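The freezer alarm interrupted the setup, so I double-checked each line after restarting. Inputs confirmed:
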Amino acid sequence: MTGHDNFLDQVTALLPALRAFGRSLCGDPARADDLVQDTVLKAWTNREQFQSGSNLKAWLFTILRNCYYSELRHRKFEIEDPDGVCAGQVAIAPDHDAKLHLRDLSRALQQLPVDQREALILVCATGLSYEEAADVCQVAVGTIKSRIARARDRLVELLGDDAALVTGHPVVGALADTEGATEPRSGGL
Amino acid sequence: MVMSEKIKPGEPPESAAANSSEPVPDWLTSRLRRMFSDVMDEPVPDEFKALLKQLEDKERGS
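Predicted 3D structure, all chains:
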């Protein structure tokens, strides 16, 4: 077995994780699969650059992320609006509709800035360490941590009440200290 | 986690909160993991198999 066969086998094994990462980044299954295809092609083309023994998953995530960002820049350019006609519409954020049901986690994720979203997903969902996530995003570990903290705060804000209702225990962490915020007091009446 | 207690001057103040041992509540982590594993459990579409096969053939050919 040659090293290259091995490489493709490993890439194949990581396809499910790549698809999941792509989808949580862009929120769109079809677009995510396009990103993964681009990623596989780029990885294969540049396979000599991959140092065997290092983390292929992190390397592929890095490529996928780069594909996503270059696509984002492209889209931004495409929807450029010199007269500002559409700008007003685009700028309307669904803030009045900000409370989302728990099952809308993926929708809530899409409301986060992309740098916070990717940090949260890489560490909490993909199983990468803080250090690996920092490598993928090319920032310091501390930056990853603060992005995750901000992502957490925003998601707790969006989903926290629902989470407490569904899971049957009070929201832990940031909101746990605000006494009686969501629960009716039993002895109060 | 313990090793990274030092505060870097350039970091935004939020990083202090992020240094707590469990920055993301369990319910959120498990939701994120489930969302992720739901996609991972999906069968990989045929287009990927075709692409990988194509690359494999290319490699053998060269």
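Quick read of the result. Chain A has eight helices and no strands.
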